[in-house]
Each structure stands twice: as C-alpha cells, then as structure tokens.
Amino acid sequence: VEHKCLRRENSSSFPVSRLLEPPGGAEHGLFMDKLEGRIRNHDREIEKMCNHHFQGFVDSITELLKVRGEAQKLKQCNIAATIDKLSHCLPVLEMYSRLQEQMKARRYYPALRTLEQLEHTCLPRASHYRFCTIMAENILVLRTQIRDIAMSDLKDFLESIRKHSDKIGETAMKQVSLQGVEGTSCCSISHCVQSNWSKTDSLWISL
Predict the structure, then answer these.
(1) Closest Cα partner for 168 from 141, 147, 192, 149?
(2) CA angle, corner 53, sides to 52 and 56, nearest 5?
(3) φ, ψ for residue 184 (rounded to 5)?
(4) CB neighbours of 112 closer than 8 A, spacing ≥ 6?
(5) What angle in degrees, to the nearest 10, is found between the helix axes of 139-163 and 182-206?
(6) DSSP 207
(7) How many other C-beta atoms lie within 10 A of the C-beta of residue 101?
(8) Alpha-carbon distance 193 to 198, whole Å?
(9) How many H-runs (helices) and E-runs (strands) does the chain carry?
(10) Where are the domains of the chain?
(11) Whole-number Å distance between alpha carbons of 207 and 153
C-alpha cells in the first residue's frame, strides 16, 4: 500500500510528458547551432577528402586510357609482325610440300627444280627460323636421295629396254613393213629414240 502511494505521489509531482518536451529558449538555439556547425565541419572534411582524391582518380582514368591506347598499338604491331613472319614461312612450307609430292610421284626433274628454288630463293628469306635452318642442312641429303632414286629407276628402265630390245625391234620392223613407208617410219623411230636420250641426258646433267 505504501509503495503504491509513493508511485502515485511521484506521478503527480513530475509528469512523464515533461521528459518528452524539447528544450526551449536559448538552450534549443545553442544546440541547433552546435549541430549545424558539426554538420558543416563534416561536410568540409568530406569535400576536402573528395577533392584530395579526385585528382588522383582523374589521373588514374587518364593513365588507364593511355595504357589502353598503347595496348591497342602493341596489338596491331604484333599482328603486323605475325603476318610478316607468316609471309616468309608459308612459301617455304608450300615449296617443301610440293617437293615431297614430286618426289613421291617420281617426278625427279621438277623435284630438282623445286629443290633449287627452295635452296636459293625461299630459305634465305627465312634463314633466322630454326626449322628453315634444319631444312637448309637437309638440302644435300634430299638432292642425294633424288639422285639415287633417279639412278635406280634409270638403271631399271635401261635393263628393261635391254631385255625387250629384240621384241621391240621385231615389232618396229613389222610396223614398217605393214605401212610400207620405211624411210618415214625409221625417221620417226630415230626421232623418238633421240628424244628419249635427250631427256635422259638432261636428267643426268641435273643430277
């Protein structure tokens, strides 16, 4: 009962609503002035910090744009250098591929011409590449290989001619007698033989 009476007395003597009332008069004005001053100080600090870092931000963006431009130039330079290197390497590879095809087809004279062009024209333009250096070192090996294969085929051809010379002569004479133009046929046969021997001589000279 006594506790309830004290609570009732305190409530009646100091109402709670007074705690919620804003300070009045000079105190309120002083508080607002200090608050505004504090806000202005913070604004100045923020502005000062922004100004301090803004120039660095601008410089960073400028440097980034400059680096991007330099990177683009470097990219174009690398592309041009790659195209230039390929323009020197591709003819060598194409010529070497043609040489291999001619050797495979047993076209020895064109193979020798291709090998000569590869040695004196294509490889000197790309001599600073390692694969071209290795290829140049193998030129003599390839030339020897072509010579040996050509000699082997020539020997086989001459051996075949020797074995079948009787039949070839017999057949030629029959053709001459059947046509009745012995002089013309003999000239044709002689011209054919001379043509074949000329080709053989050319191959020997190339080898």
Answers:
(1) 192
(2) 115
(3) -65, -45
(4) 143, 146, 206, 207
(5) 150
(6) -
(7) 13
(8) 9
(9) 8, 0
(10) 71-153
(11) 13
Report pLDDT digits (tens) over 29-84: 888 888 888 888 888 888 888 887 888 888 888 888 889 889 999 999 999 998 98
The letter for the amino acid at 143 is R
Query: SS3 of 164, please?
Result: coil
Place of tokens 């291709």: 114
Q: Is 136 exposed, middle or buried (CB count within 10 Å of its CB: 0-12, 13-18, 19+)?
A: middle
The amino acid that residue 186 corresponds to is: C
CA dihedral 59, 63, 65, 67 (to 10 degrees): -170
Q: Is the pTM of this model over 0.85?
A: no
Calculate the alpha carbon distances from 170 to 40, 167, 179 in Å. Answer: 126, 5, 14
